[in-house]
C-alpha cells in the first residue's frame, strides 16, 4: 500500500501505526521512529523531524540536516502537536443543508461528497465551459499540484493569495529585474546593514531568517527599522524611525536623491547593468531630505547621517523589498525604490546583499519534473486579465480581488464554481461582506481545509484534508543561493475520515472522465515521477528530508554572469512593461490625506504565536494570545477621553466592532493597530469564536481598492473612527 492513499474505510489512528509503509525503523530504543517532513503551521514549510511513538507524534523539532534550521522551531511549529489532537476541526466531508453560512451540515461519505462536487462541476462546465471554474490556494511550494488540477480541467483561472500579501513587492521586483520576489534572496547572515520597511522579521517570522538576522546583529551588523509601530524587530534594531504611515516612498525618494547628489552609488555596476538613470534622476528632482521630513517626520539630518553610514557599509547591505509591505496605494513604489537602492549600492550578487535565487538548471542539474508539464496548454484568457489586459500583472498568481469582481458582475465571463484550497479569503481578503456578495453568485463553493475556516463555514461542501503530519505532499524545490529539494513525508495515520489533496483532485477528475490527466497511483508514484532524472533518489531524500543541490551558496560572476529577463536585459529604472501598461515607473509621491480629530489609519500585522486566522482555535496558541486589544497613542487617547483598558467602538461606515484599548506610545499618533486573524465567527471553533476583533471586517469598501501598479489590496488606506463606550457590568 502506498503511504497515504487511504482506501475506503481508512480507520482512525492505529495505535501501532502498523499500516504505514513510510515508517523508517531504528529511532529510539523504545520503538519510536523519526520521520523527516516539512512543517505545515505556516506557509514557510520549514524542514522538521517528527518523533513518532505508538502511532502518535510525541516531539517535533527542526531538521538538523538543514544546517541553518538546526533543531529550532517557532511556537506555531511546536503547536503542530495540539493541531493533531484538536477535535474541533472537520472530521468528515460535509454538505450544506441550510442557507449559506448558517452552519447546518449533513456529514457524508467521500463518495457522496465527490459525486456531488463532480456533478456540479460538470453542470457548470457544460453550461459555461471549463473557464467558469476558479481555484485559489496559498501558493508557494506545492502549487504545482493545484495548477495541474486546473490544467487538467482546462481552466486558466488559478489564483494564489498574493494580491493580499506580497503582490506589490513581487511586481516591483519584476518591473526592475524581470525576476519575481522569489527570484531574489537576502544574504542576511553576512550583511553589514539591513534596512527594513515594516518587515517585522523577528515576529512575522521564518525560523531560518530570524536565526540569520540575530546572528548578523551578534557579529556587529546594523539594522535600520522603519515602522509607525514599535514592533519586536524595532526593539532589536540599531536605528528606529517611527515614520508617518504611508510615507515611506517620500523617504526613499530622498535617500536616492542624496545618493545621486553625493555620487555614492556603484558606478561600475550601474554602468554595466542599469538603464534609465536619467529617468531616476528626474524622478527624485527636488526630493531633498528637508522635503521628506515634512511628510515622514524623519529629521533631515538623521537621513543624511544614515546615507553616509550605509554607503560606507556598501556593497554588503540590504534594503529589504518588503513582504506584506505596508499596504497603501503607493507601496509598490516603496518596494521598487528599496530594490533600486540595492542596485545603487552595488548590493546585487554579493555576500551580505541581495543574491539571485538559483534553480537546479543554474547549477547544470535537472530540476524536478513539473506536474503541469505534459498537460494541454490552456489558451483561454484569465478572468482577471493578468498577463494580457494587465500586461504588468503576473498571470502565474493573478489578482484575487479581480476574481471576486468578475464573480459578482459576471464579466468578462461568468465564474460559477470556485474551490478555496488551503486558503481562507473571508479572513484574508478585505471586507468579508463584499467577498460574500461575490460568493453568493456561485453555483458551487468548495473548501478544502484542515480547519473550519471562515470560508469553509460559508461553503456548500467542506472536503477535509488530512493534516500535514498525516499526509505526504509533492516534493518541493527550495530556491535560493543554495537550492534544495525537500519532502513532506507522512508521519501519522489520519485520525479522522480525511484525505490528502492529491487524492481529492484525482478522484474529482476521475468522476469527470478526466482521470487520464492525473493517473498517479499514490504519492510515491508522484514522488518518483518528480525525481526521475534528477540524480536524487527517493530513499536519500526521505532519509535526509532536505537534499541541497550545491555544496555552498553559489554567486554568479557580476561582470558577465548575471541575467535579467526584462525586455532590455538590463535593470530597468524605467520599466518597458510598466510603460506598456500606461503606468509610471516612479510616480510622483502622493501625500496621505490629513485625518480629522477622531479618525485613525487602521494598521495591522502578525503576532509571533499565530498564523493569520488559522491557528486562532489551536488550544496552545489560543492560550498564549487569545485576543487583540487595539493600540492607541496616549496623546490621541487623552484627547478622546480614553484610558488604558477602556472599552471602545471602532467603526467605519456602517460597520462597528467593540474591543478594549491598549494605550501606548509604541504606535504613531495617526494610527491604531490590531493584530490580524482574530474575531472568528465559526461556532464550531469554541475557543476562538467571538474572541478579539477582525481588522478585515473594518476594511469595508476596500475589496476593490488596490495599488494599480502592483495589484496589492490597499488595506492600510482604511480610515476608522474610535470612541469610548460604556459596557454594562
Ligand atoms: N486584514 C488583513 N488581511 C490580510 C492580512 C492582514 O494582516 N490583515 N494578511 C494577508 C497575508 S500576508 C496573507 S499571506 C493572507 C493569508 O490568507 P490565507 O492564505 O487565507 O491564510 P492562511 O492562514 O495561510 O491559511 C489559509 C487556510 O489554509 C488552511 N490550512 C492550513 N493548513 C492546511 C492544510 O494542510 N491543508 C489544507 N487544505 N488547508 C490548510 C487554514 O486552516 C486556513 O483556513 O491574508 C492576507 N490578508
Ligand atoms: N508569526 C507569524 N509569522 C508570519 C506569518 C504569520 O501569520 N505569523 N505570516 C507570514 C506571511 S504570509 C507574511 S506576508 C509575512 C509578513 O511579514 P511583514 O511584511 O513583516 O508583515 P506584518 O506582520 O504585516 O507587519 C507589518 C508591519 O508594517 C507596519 N506598517 C504599517 N504601515 C506602515 C507604513 O506605512 N510604513 C512602514 N514602514 N510600516 C508600516 C505595521 O505597523 C506592522 O508592524 O509574515 C510571515 N510570517
Ligand atoms: S516558521 Fe514556524 S510555523 Fe512556519 S514553517 Fe517554520 S516552524 Fe513552522
Ligand atoms: Mo503573506
Question: How is this fold's topology laid out?
Answer:
Blueprint: E1 33-38, E2 47-53, E3 56-62, H1 75-78, H2 80-85, E4 94-96, E5 105-107, H3 110-128, E6 133-137, H4 143-153, E7 158-160, H5 167-177, E8 184-186, E9 193-197, H6 207-218, E10 222-226, H7 232-236, E11 239-241, H8 248-261, H9 267-273, E12 274-275, H10 277-283, H11 289-296, H12 300-313, E13 317-319, H13 331-344, E14 354-356, H14 400-409, E15 417-421, H15 425-428, H16 432-439, E16 444-449, H17 454-458, E17 461-464, E18 476-478, E19 484-486, H18 501-511, H19 523-531, H20 538-544, E20 546-548, E21 571-572, H21 576-580, E22 599-605, H22 619-624, E23 630-632, H23 634-639, E24 647-652, E25 655-663, E26 671-675, H24 695-698, E27 719-724
Parallel strand pairs: 6-7, 6-15, 9-10, 9-13, 10-11, 12-21, 15-16, 16-17, 22-26, 23-25
Antiparallel strand pairs: 1-2, 2-3, 4-5, 4-17, 8-14, 18-19, 19-20, 22-27, 24-25, 24-27
Helix pairs in contact: 3-18, 4-18, 5-13, 8-11, 8-12, 8-13, 11-12, 14-16
Molybdenum atom binds next to loops.
Please tell me about this protein's structure.
The chain is an alpha/beta fold and 729 residues long. The chain is 28% helix and 16% strand. The protein is built from 24 helices and 27 strands. The strands form seven sheets. A seven-stranded mixed sheet has the order 5-4-17-16-15-6-7. Strands 23-25-24-27-22-26 form a six-stranded mixed sheet. Strand 10 (222-226), helix 7 (232-236) and strand 11 form a beta-alpha-beta unit. Helix 5 (167-177) crosses helix 13, helix 8 crosses helix 12 (300-313) and helix 8 packs parallel to helix 13 (331-344). It starts with 32 loop residues before the first strand and ends in a 5-residue tail after the last strand. Mean pLDDT is 94; it is low at 1-26. The site of one ligand MGD has 31 residues, from strand 22.
